[in-house]
From TrEMBL:
Pfam families, per the entry: Sigma70_ECF
NCBIfam families: Sig-70_X6, sigma70-ECF
Family per record: Belongs to the sigma-70 factor family. ECF subfamily.
Domain RNA polymerase sigma-70 ECF-like HTH: from-to ranges: 17-193
Protein name: RNA polymerase sigma factor (TIGR02999 family)
SUPFAM superfamilies per record: Sigma2 domain of RNA polymerase sigma factors, Sigma3 and sigma4 domains of RNA polymerase sigma factors
Keyword Transcription regulation: yes
Residues forming coiled coils: none
Length: 197
C-alpha cells in the first residue's frame, strides 16, 4: 500500500517486476535492462541513502547504481523471487561495490588496516571514508559468522535501505523480531568496530 491509498498501480508494477525477474532468470538480457529501468529510481534512493550515511565523496549516486547493476547482471542470470528479493541482492551488490571502491581508495595508504572507526564518525576525507566502509565490512563478516539473520537485517536496512516491515516480510518474521535483531546487531557491530558501550 502506498501513501496515496491506491495500491492498484503498485500491484500491477509488482506483477511486471515478477514477470521481468522470471524472464531475466531465464537469461533474457532485455528483461534485465527493463527491470533495471523500472527499478532505477528505487535503486537510486537506496544508493543515495548509502552515500549520504557514509558522507561519501568518492562515488556518485549514479555511479553506485550503475556499478551495482553491472555486478548484478555479471552473474548472467538472476534467480530472484520478487522485487524485495531483488532489492536484497542489490543491497549486497552495493555493499560489495562500496567495499571494492574503499579498497581501491585505501590501497597503499599509511595505516590502512590499523585504524578502526565507528558507524557514527562522519569524516569527509576519502581515506577515512574507505577505512569506515572496510571496518564495517569486516564487522559485518564477523556478524554473519555469529548471527547470519542479524547480518541480513543490517545489510537490508543499512545497505538496502529497506524499512523494518519490508525486512520482516522478506524474512518471514514479525517486525518486533527484526527490530530486536537490528538492536543486537548494532551492539555487536559497535563492539567489533571498537566503539564499545
Amino acid at each position: 500500500m502506498d501513501d496515496t491509498g491506491s495500491d492498484a498501480p503498485a500491484a500491477g508494477r509488482d506483477e511486471l517486476v515478477a514477470a521481468l525477474l522470471a524472464a531475466a532468470g531465464s537469461g533474457d538480457a532485455a528483461a534485465n535492462d527493463r527491470l533495471f529501468a523500472l527499478l532505477y529510481d528505487e535503486l537510486r534512493q537506496c544508493a543515495h541513502r548509502q552515500l549520504r550515511s557514509l558522507s561519501s565523496r568518492t562515488l556518485s549516486t549514479t555511479a553506485l547504481v550503475h556499478e551495482t547493476y553491472l555486478k548484478l547482471i555479471s552473474a548472467r542470470t538472476l534467480d530472484v523471487q520478487d522485487r524485495r528479493h531483488f532489492m536484497a541482492l542489490a543491497a549486497r551488490a552495493m555493499r560489495q561495490v562500496l567495499v571494492d571502491n574503499a579498497r581501491r581508495a585505501g590501497a597503499g595508504k599509511r595505516g590502512g588496516d590499523a585504524l578502526l572507526v565507528t558507524l557514527d564518525e562522519r569524516v569527509p576525507d576519502a581515506v577515512n571514508e574507505a577505512l569506515e566502509v572496510l571496518a564495517l565490512d569486516r564487522a559485518l563478516s564477523t556478524l554473519e559468522a555469529v548471527d547470519p539473520r542479524a547480518a541480513r537485517v543490517v545489510q537490508l536496512h543499512f545497505f538496502g535501505g529497506l524499512a523494518f516491515p519490508a525486512i520482516a516480510e522478506l524474512e518471514g518474521l514479525n517486525e518486533r523480531t527484526i527490530k530486536r535483531d537490528w538492536q543486537a546487531a548494532k551492539m555487536l557491530l559497535a563492539a567489533e568496530m571498537g566503539a564499545g558501550g
